[in-house]
């Protein structure tokens, strides 16, 4: 058992997060999972959001740093980098699952009505706060993720 991500985020201990991620990855593979639905890269800015404990915090730099540390732990450091893509993730497929970051952009910034409410953020806030973790994660895992984010924003 490990602390909730919000507690890990408040520690600012990236070494600990990477170690926790490594154990999560090993346990997932031992259980037969090849994909980890982690880390949660959602930046939560409203404490009324019901899934607050699943997130590392409200600061985009913190969320980015902890998301990358979790990914290095889960996937293994040797499987992280701009030259990696979905077809070459598993140098050691017995011990390292593939990371799938989540959730939707600005999901944690919804207004008082919770999950189904509209998100009213400026374009600048979307880029500088809510998309920052996703862009860094995409750049270090699969470049198509970052390209998809950019394309989606253009339309």
Number of DSSP helical runs: 6
> How is the biggest beta sheet arranged?
2 strands, parallel
Please give the number of β-strands: 2
How much helix is in the residues?
40-55%
**Class of secondary structure makeup:** mainly alpha
Strand numbers in spatial order across the main sheet: 1-2
Task: Note down, in words, how this protein is organized.
With 155 residues, this protein is mainly alpha-helical. It has 6 helices and 2 strands. It is globular and about 45 Å long. α3 packs parallel to α5 and α5 (132-140) runs antiparallel to α6 (143-154). It starts with a helix and ends with a helix.
Task: Explain the layout of strands and helices.
Blueprint: H1 5-11, H2 14-30, E1 35-36, H3 60-75, E2 98-99, H4 123-130, H5 132-140, H6 143-154
Helix pairs in contact: 2-3, 3-5, 5-6
List the main descriptive attributes of the protein structure presented here.
155 residues, mainly alpha, two-stranded parallel ribbon, 2 strands, 45% helix, 3% strand
Compact description:
With 155 residues, the protein is mostly helical.
């Amino acid at each position: 058992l490990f602390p909730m991500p919000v507690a890990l985020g408040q520690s600012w201990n990236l070494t600990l997060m990477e170690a926790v991620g490594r154990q999560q990855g090993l346990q997932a593979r031992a259980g037969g999972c090849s994909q980890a639905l982690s880390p949660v890269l959602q930046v939560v800015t409203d404490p009324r959001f019901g899934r607050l404990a699943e997130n590392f915090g409200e600061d985009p730099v913190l969320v980015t740093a902890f998301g990358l540390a979790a990914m290095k732990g889960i996937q293994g450091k040797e499987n992280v980098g701009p030259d990696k893509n979905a077809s070459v993730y598993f140098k050691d497929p017995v011990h390292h699952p593939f990371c799938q970051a989540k959730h939707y952009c600005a999901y944690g910034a919804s207004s008082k009505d919770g999950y189904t409410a509209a998100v009213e953020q400026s374009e600048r806030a979307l880029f500088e706060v809510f998309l920052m973790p996703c862009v860094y994660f995409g750049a270090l895992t699969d470049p198509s993720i970052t390209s998809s984010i950019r394309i989606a924003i253009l339309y």
